[in-house]
Amino acid sequence: MGLTVETAEKDHAVVRMTVRDEMVNGFGITHGGMIFAFADSCFALTCNDPDADGSTITVASGVDVNFLAPTTAGQSLIAEGRLVSRAGRSGVYDITVTTEDGAVVAVFRGRSRTIPNPAAR
After folding, report:
1. For residue 52, what pLDDT is reported?
2. Helices (H), ranges, 25-115
3. pTM score over 0.85
4. pLDDT for residue 120
5. Cβ pair 94, 109 in contact under 8 A
6. Res 121: pLDDT
7. Cβ count within 10 A of residue 98
8. Distance, CA of 109 to CA of 36 (rounded, Å)
9. What does the H/E/C string look like for the chain?
10. Which of 7, 27, 50, 95 gets the highest tally of CB atoms within 10 A of its CB?
11. pLDDT less than 70: residues of the chain
């Protein structure tokens, strides 16, 4: 997808992506699946602490996404994720996708669950 990670820290991430020709649909606007995957990638970075010991991972247990404005090939998008609330092994995170000029393209709310890391067994 050509993502550039600008910030990846505990409970906060910022990622950039430039929309390419193959990312648009038949109407010439960015495919919703591409916007979803972009926001979901930011969500993964936001809810997984890069300084953790690796014994657990945090995964999506559900998401809601609202597409608010179209974008086209050549536009640069920014996804910023932040923790809303965490209780035990569950969390809620908001990811906002904007254009470079700050126009909101999509809002994504992710629900997470922290589980044992299967690779650490």
Report:
1. 93
2. 32-47
3. yes
4. 84
5. yes
6. 72
7. 19
8. 11
9. CCCEEEEEECCEEEEEEECCHHHECCCCCECHHHHHHHHHHHHHHHHCCCCCCCCEEEEEEEEEEEECCCCCCCCEEEEEEEEEEEECCEEEEEEEEEECCCCEEEEEEEEEEEEECHHHC
10. 95
11. none
Q: Three-state DSSP class for 75?
A: coil
Residue located via tokens 């505990």: 10
Tell me how far CA of residue 56 lies from CA of 38, 59, 74, 85, in angstroms: 23, 10, 38, 18
Instruction: Name residues whose C-beta falls within 8 Å of residue 117's C-beta, 6 or more positions apart in sequence.
Output: 54, 55, 56, 57
What order do you get walking across the sheet with 104-116 strand by strand?
A: 4-9, 12-18, 76-87, 90-99, 104-116, 56-67
Yes or no: say if 97 and 35 are a contact pair by the CB < 8 Å rule.
yes
